[in-house]
Design brief:
The structure is a homodimer. With about 475 residues, the first copy, chain A, is α/β, with parallel strands linked by helices. Chain A has 3 domains: about 1-145 and about 260-325, 3-Layer(bba) Sandwich (FAD/NAD(P)-binding domain); about 145-260, 3-Layer(bba) Sandwich (FAD/NAD(P)-binding domain), CATH 3.50.50; about 340-450, Enolase-like, domain 1 (2-Layer Sandwich). The first copy, chain A, has helices at about 15-25, 40-45, 45-60, 65-70, 80-105, 160, 180-190, 210-220, 310-325, 375, 405-420, 425, 435-450, and strands at about 1-10, 30-35, 70, 80, 110, 115-120, 120-125, 130-135, 140-145, 155, 170-175, 195-200, 225-230, 235, 240-245, 250, 255, 260-265, 295-300, 340, 345-350, 360-370, 385-390, 395-405. In chain A, strands 1, 2, 5, 6, 7, 8 and 19 form a 7-stranded mixed beta sheet that branches. In chain A, helix 3 runs antiparallel to helix 5 and helix 3 (about 45-60) runs parallel beside helix 7 (about 180-190). Chain A is globular and about 75 Å long. The N and C termini of chain A lie far apart (about 85 Å). The model of chain A has no long low-confidence stretch (mean pLDDT about 95). At the A-B interface, helix 3, helix 4, strand 3, strand 4 and helix 5 of A face helix 3, helix 4, strand 3, strand 4 and helix 5 of B.
C-alpha cells in the first residue's frame, strides 16, 4: 500500500520548517519527514551556540584592555570553560526548544525517519511508501571530515560535538579557517586555550580581498598562530594529535575540523529523478525558484550548496513552500549576498566579492580604522574596510570588511547595494558623530574622489533656486 | 580705515571650519575670526570627550555581567576616576590638535577676537573694522546655566568644565535629562558615583514615544535615581548642594547642569542686519540655503538653533561656504534627521519623531529585545524599538529606539527613510543570523502585518514566470 499526500517536506531544519510554515498557511495535505535529531543546525550546533561561546570569550578578553580605560584588576579575572560550555548548552536548549514547537503538534503528519526515492514521486521511509505530488528536499548538510581522520575518535571534534564537551583541553588545533574556523579559533584562544589554526589556501574567513585578508590575518595572529598555504595532516600520538602542514608541526590535545559542510543527499536515491547530479550528488536548481529541472521537486537550504546561511535557508524554504502550492512556480529576486564571521573585529563580505570583480571597470575605496575616532575611544582601533563601485555609473557593487562593528556596516552596505545606490547617494546618509560608520564614510569619500575628483558637499542641490 | 575682504567667517568651530574648507577651495580672499578657545565644541567639550568617558564607564560596568558568561573576579575590578579623566583629556587633546591644523597656516587671515556688527556688512574685531561682501556666522553655542546658579561656583559644572576636573565626588546630580544628561549621567553612575538625575518634563534623552521612553526610564533607573516632572532648584549647603524637585530633595557634592545650549549671538549687534530676531536673539534662516532673509549673510551650525549636532553643523558650513561663493544661493536637500544618545542601550530618534506623527494615518511596529536571540547571547537583552510607517503607502517615516546597538539600527533606518523605502522593501534586506538587526525585522514584520495582513515571503517575485 502506498500512502499519498500533496506535499512532502524532507528535513525539519531551518529550510524545512520555513517551507512548512508556507505550506501550512494554505493546506493540511502535507507531511514533514525528519531523520536524526530535531532542532535546526543553526540552533543545535551552528550560529547560536557559537555566538554564545564567542560572547563569553569576548567578555573574558576585556581583561586585556581594561587598564587602558583606567580599570584595574583585569589580570585577576579567571574563566571556567566548563561553566562557559554549560551556559552555551543552556542557551542552545532554549533555542532548540523554540524550533521544536513547529512540528510538535503535527501528529502523524510529522514522520521520523530517513527518506529515499523509490520513484520520482514516491519516497520510502522506514519501509513505508509515500507518494507526493510535490516534494521539497531540505535535508541540510553535515561537517566534512576526511575519511582518514575518523580513526582519531574524539581527538577530532566538529561543530556537531564541540559544544557537547564538558571542558576543553589546553592545546587545540583548528583545521580550516573559513568563517566558522576563524570565529571559533579566536574564541577558543581568547578563552585561554593555546590554538593553532591551519588553512590550506591563503584566504581566511570567506575573504577574497588581499588587503582585508592581510588585516584579518594580522589581527587573528595576535591571539593564535595561524598557518596558511599547506594542507594539514593529522597523526595520533600518545598525548594527542600531531598536526603537520608544510614545514610546520605541532602536537595538540584535540583538533576541531572546520573544513566546510557537505549536503545530506547521498544514499537518497536521487538518481531516480533522472537528472544529472554533480560530484557531490547534488542536482542543479534554479536559485530563483528552487525547482529541480521541470520536476515537481524543490531543493532548499544547505542541501542545494548555494549559500549555507540561516537567512538564505529560510528564504529557500519560503520559496520552495510557496512554489510547491502552485501549478507553475514563480521565481524570486534573491537578497544581496551577505556573509559575516563573528570574529573581533568582525569579518564581512557584502555584494560582489573582490575576487569576482572586473578590476578594469571598478574603483576601490579604502579605510583603515587605526585612527578612526570612535574606534580609538573604544580601544578597538584596528581593521580595514574596502568598498567597490562601478567606474562608469558610480554604483556600489560590494565590500569586504575586517573592522569593528563590521556586522552592522555590512547590513548598511547590503541595503545600499540592494537599492542600487551610487557612492554619492550613500554619502547623503546622516553619519552621526562619533560612530564607526564615519570610517565607512572615509572609504566612500576615497571612492567618490576617484570617480569624480571635483569635491563638493555630499548633499544634493534642490532643483529650483532659493526664493 | 576699514579693511575689506570677500568673505568673513565668524567662528572656527565645526561649522566655521567646514565653511572655511568650502571657501578655500575657490578663493584666498577670506578671513576667519574666532573668539575664545580654538578647537571645536565637539572635540573640546562635546561628542569626543563624552564618548571617551562613556567607553571607560561601560568597560568598568562589565564587572556586573562577567559572571553570567562564566568569568570570575569581576567584583574585584576597581576604577580610578582620575585616570579615566586623564585618558579623556589625552584623547581629547589629540582630537583638538586635529582641528587646529585647519587655521594654523592662515597667517593674518585668521583673526583672534570677538566680532560685532557695526553695519550689515561691517564687523568690528577688537577695534579693527572689516567690511565683507559676504559674512558667515558660525559662532556656536554654550551651555545654559540659570543665572541664580552662578553663585554656586564650581559646585555646578557643565560639559565645558566636567572633563577638566582632576577627579569627581561620590555624589552628583545631573540636572537635565536630554541626550547629554542621560549619557553622562549613566556613565558617571557606572563609574561608581551615586547619581541623581532630574528632568522637568516627562520625556528623556530626546525621545517622544511613550513606550520607548518608559523603557529608557526603567533601564537608566537600574543604575541611578531619575526624577521627572518637576524643575530642580539648587541651594548651597556646607557640604555641597541641596537639590529640590517637587517633593524630592537630595544633597550632593557637585551638580552637572545639562539643560541644553544657547546660541552665541547675543551682544553681536545683529540688530544692524535689520531683520527680526527671536527671543533668543536669533534671526530666521532658510534651512536649505542658510541665508538670513535676502542678505549676503549666512547662519550656520549650533548658532542657528536648528539641530546642534556635528554632522548637521558640518553640512551647514558646507552649504554656507558654497553659497557665500555664489551670486545667488542654492538650496540643498538636508539629511534625514538622526539623533543618538550614547547610553547603553543606545537611544536614537530617526526621521519623524513620534510626537510629530498624525496617529490616524500611521501604523506602528514594535519589538522588545527581552527575548531577542543575539541580545540574549550578549547578555544585553533589554530595550524597545518602535518604527512608524504611513498607512496609505507603507512608506517608512521614522523610529524611536532604546535598544542594544541602537546607533547602528538608527543608521540603517535613516538610509531606508532617506530612500523613501516601504516596510516591505526594507524587509528585502538580508538580515543575517544571529544579529540585533533581526529585532528590527520583528518590528518591521509587526508593521507589515498591520499594513497588509496577507503573509508571504519577504522577497519580491520576478516579473516573468520561470522557464
Amino acid at each position: 500500500m502506498i500512502d499519498a499526500c500533496d506535499i512532502a517536506i524532507v528535513g525539519a531544519g531551518s529550510a524545512g520548517l520555513s517551507a512548512l510554515r508556507a505550506v501550512r498557511r494554505e493546506t493540511d495535505n502535507f507531511v514533514i519527514i525528519n531523520d536524526g535529531p530535531y532542532g535546526t543546525t543553526c540552533a543545535r550546533v551552528g550560529c547560536m551556540p557559537s555566538k554564545a561561546l564567542i560572547e563569553a570569550a569576548n567578555a573574558f578578553h576585556m581583561r586585556e584592555v581594561l587598564d587602558r580605560f583606567g580599570v584595574s584588576g583585569g589580570q585577576q579575572l579567571t574563566v571556567d570553560i566548563a561553566t562557559v560550555l554549560r551556559r552555551v548548552r543552556r542557551l542552545r536548549d532554549a533555542f532548540v526548544a523554540g524550533t521544536l514547537e513547529f512540528t510538535n503538534d503535527l501528529g502523524e503528519r510529522s514522520i521520523a525517519g530517513r527518506a529515499r526515492f523509490l520513484e520520482a514521486d514516491v519516497l520510502d521511509i522506514n519501509g513505508r511508501q509515500l507518494r507526493a505530488k510535490t516534494i521539497i528536499l531540505a535535508t541540510g548538510s553535515r561537517p566534512v571530515v576526511p575519511h582518514e581522520w575518523t580513526g582519531l575518535g574524539t581527538r577530532v571534534l566538529t561543530s556537531d560535538n564541540l559544544f557537547e564537551q564538558q571542558t576543553l583541553p589546553i592545546r587545540m588545533a583548528v583545521v580550516g579557517m573559513g568563517p566558522i574556523g576563524v570565529e571559533i579559533g579566536q574564541a577558543l584562544a581568547r578563552l585561554g586555550i593555546t590554538v593553532h589554526g591551519f588553512q590550506a589556501g591563503g584566504f581566511i574567513g570567506g575573504l577574497s580581498d588581499p588587503a582585508v585578508n592581510d588585516t584579518a590575518l594580522a589581527l587573528l595572529r595576535e591571539v593564535f598562530t595561524l598557518h596558511t598555504g599547506a594542507r594539514a595532516q593529522l597523526e595520533a600520538t600518545d598525548e594527542g594529535v600531531r598536526v603537520h602542514a608544510g614545514a610546520h608541526e605541532v602536537v595538540v590535545d584535540q583538533v576541531l575540523a572546520a573544513l566546510g559542510r557537505r549536503p545530506n543527499l547521498d544514499d537518497m536515491g536521487l538518481e531516480k529523478l533522472g537528472v544529472t547530479l554533480n560530484r557531490h550528488g547534488v542536482p542543479a536548481v534554479d536559485p530563483r525558484s528552487l525547482q529541480i529541472g521541470n520536476l515537481p521537486v524543490y531543493l532548499a537550504g544547505d542541501a542545494n550548496e548555494r549559500r549555507p546561511l540561516l537567512h538564505e535557508a529560510a528564504d529557500d524554504g519560503h520559496i520552495a513552500g510557496y512554489n510547491a502550492l502552485r501549478p507553475q512556480p514563480d521565481c524570486f529576486h534573491r537578497r544581496t549576498p551577505l556573509m559575516i564571521a563573528f570574529t573581533d573585529p568582525n569579518i564581512a563580505v557584502v555584494g560582489q566579492r573582490h575576487a569576482d570583480l572586473d578590476s578594469d571597470r571598478v574603483a576601490v575605496g579604502t579605510v583603515s580604522f587605526e585612527n578612526q575616532g570612535r574606534a580609538r575611544m573604544a580601544e578597538e582601533n584596528h581593521g580595514c574596510l574596502r568598498v567597490y563601485a562601478e567606474r562608469s555609473s558610480g554604483r556600489l557593487l560590494g565590500a569586504e570588511i575586517c573592522a569593528p562593528r563590521g556586522e552592522h556596516m555590512g547590513h548598511l552596505l547590503a541595503l545600499a547595494i540592494q537599492q542600487q545606490l551610487t557612492v554619492r547617494e550613500l554619502l547623503r546618509l546622516p553619519f552621526y558623530h562619533p560612530v564607526i560608520e564615519e570610517g565607512l564614510r572615509t572609504a566612500l569619500r576615497d571612492l567618490s574622489g576617484q570617480l569624480d575628483p571635483i569635491e563638493g558637499p555630499d548633499l544634493a542641490i534642490c532643483d529650483s533656486p532659493v526664493g
